[in-house]
Model the fold of this input.
Amino acid sequence: MDIDDTNVEALSAEEPTALAHAQTDAAAPDVERVPWLGFFLGDDVYGLPLGQLREVARLNGVRRIPGAPARVAGLVNLRGEIVCALDARAMLGLAPQQPAAGAFFVAFRGFPDPLGVIVDSITDIYAIDPDEIEPPLEAWTAERAALFVGVARVKEGVIGLLDLHRMIGVTS
Done:
């Protein structure tokens, strides 16, 4: 679990009773946190449920498929296996952009066909308390918000937590 330095500084600056209270809370049973893989698309942070991911690899190339929907970026060769690469930007209604040289491919597990998604970069793995997940942002369209479990606060800001099955269902 990451420790946020700002919280440590704020706690050490408070009265001794606050420190004693924090130590009592630390002795309480841990809440079952769920791991999420954080990634960037532009300046925004999104998350995929770690338990539904098979592999994360540098993107080495995408072979376009003529006539494929915009949400399908193409095919990726992942260690000899041909995997359908989805375009996360198109799926989330973001402006199209060619994958950067340092882009990543995140392969999913639990689907009948090999699937994955192209992301700009990987940020971290976050252990998120399910009780701290808030509803999707009101500024998002209903279509976009439907792809999310919700949002949570992490060190990079607000992370949009994607519902992988809803996201994939949109491409079917």
Summary: The mean pLDDT is 82. The two ends are 36 Å apart (CA to CA).
